[in-house]
Amino acid sequence: MPAAPPDVGAPATSARARYLSFAWLYARSQLRLRYRRAWLGRLWNLLEPLLFLGVLGVVFAVVNRADLRDFAVYLFAGLVPWRYLERATLGATDSIVEGGWLLKRTAAPAEVLPAVAWLTATLDFAFGFTALLLVLALLSEHWSVHLAALPLSVMALALLALGLGMIFAVLNVFARDVKPLLQVGLMLLFFSSPVLIMRTTVPQGSLVHSIFEWHPLAPLLALFQKPIHAHAWPAASDWALSFGAAAAACAIGWLLVRWKARRFYFYL
């Protein structure tokens, strides 16, 4: 009777688990190093988004001539996910270039490096999301059942951030001017999006209204703004477009990393 073939998948699975564990521990260490010499320590993770968003809330409530309580909830609902998407994407863009030493010294898969940057931004986002919940508790007049949609909203946002991070991490290896161009693009996306300006204050048929309607971030922002501020369920098109974009970005990013990984050594 022939012997059973060896389980070749087990070592690969074990190695993959080790690298995922490394990614998690490395991300945690990055956060500890960032706040090691800060007087407020980890508490600053919560205070920083509260202070930042609080200042913007007061300033743009005056600009929009809106009620401060209502506008603060609207602003936080869009700004917290935007900051996560921006930080995760920009952080991952430098990850392979700055972590080239790891790829040269170990057999770690290249996708571990963008994953570390993404995990670091995700841990930061957890504190920002906590700040958002505190704002809701203090300023929102009532909570609604529509908040139950937020876990799925966070999932779509996180997958999109991971996919975009991998894509730009690969591109940045071969063209180092990718990051400044990305920063300009993100700035344009942010200031043209319905984050700082409430949609209800924009006249129907105006150019700004048309930009908001067709803005590429509008479906993703709606996943947060509608449940939190408008007390409504996101539309089916919002879900489809957001998860579709997230799935496409993850697939393209992973394929790019696997396809170009062997060429990284000549550019790092």
Q: What's the quaternary structure here?
A: single chain
β-strand amount: under 5%
Number of strands: 0
Structural class by SSE content: mainly alpha
Provide a count of the helices: 11
Low-confidence stretches: 1-10
**What separation lies between the terminal Cα atoms?**
51 Å
The profile of the biggest β sheet is: none
Inertia-based shape = globular
Provide structural commentary.
There is one protein chain. The protein is mostly helical and 268 residues long. Helix content is 73%, strand content 0%. The protein contains eleven helices and no strands. It has helices spanning 9-34, 43-63, 68-93, 95-98, 100-105, 112-139, 150-174, 178-191, 207-214, 218-230, 236-260. Helix 2 (43-63) packs across helix 6 (112-139). It starts with 8 loop residues before the first helix and ends in an 8-residue tail after the last helix.
